[in-house]
Amino acid sequence: MGEETVKIKLDSSVALFALLFVSIVILAFHISIVMNGVTGFAVSAVEKPFDINAIQSTKDSIKALYPVEKIKSAEDAMAIVIPTGVPEYASKLPVSYGDGEKSLLVWVQVYQTTKLTPEQANRYINLATKPLGISCEFCCSVGPVGITYQGQLKCGCKHNPAAQGIAMWLIQNTDYTDAQVVREVLRWKAVWFPRNMVIETVKAAQESQS
Q: Using an 8 Å Cβ cutoff, are 184 and 87 in contact?
């Protein structure tokens, strides 16, 4: 009985150590990219076909939007999915990938103040009601879809309106394609939920390479 207790404690300690190790790796990666401002992969352009009707999860979106076939390690996944610096539209909005908390509040305000035209609203609803990952799925149990078909939020946490605000603002103020809009939402999700997004990216890579 005593040996079994010791074994259980050791197994728990190993699991805790593994989780701590992953967290430390992600933290070290963040420090590295902030200091160096570079990543090992160029992902500025969406070159893959992107069929929104064929995607059923955030993982599917990652597989369709990122070069997951190049991933050989967790470090590769982090380099691909976690953005650095500032987005190309930063001159129009005070947001930065390096300041996730401040940018989160900006995107929430964007959601609250953005008024779409009927045409823009139809495009937004068509995107956001599909399981592409425009949601707060990693902090709340809403899955990859964050709104109803009527455009109402499924969750009131800050991450969900922020994700919707990103999609809405990009539709209104840029010429981004649907693929580019979704990928930008995923970039911010990687800022706010790096561990979850790295895990999904590794899964996507494993499936694409199997």
A: yes
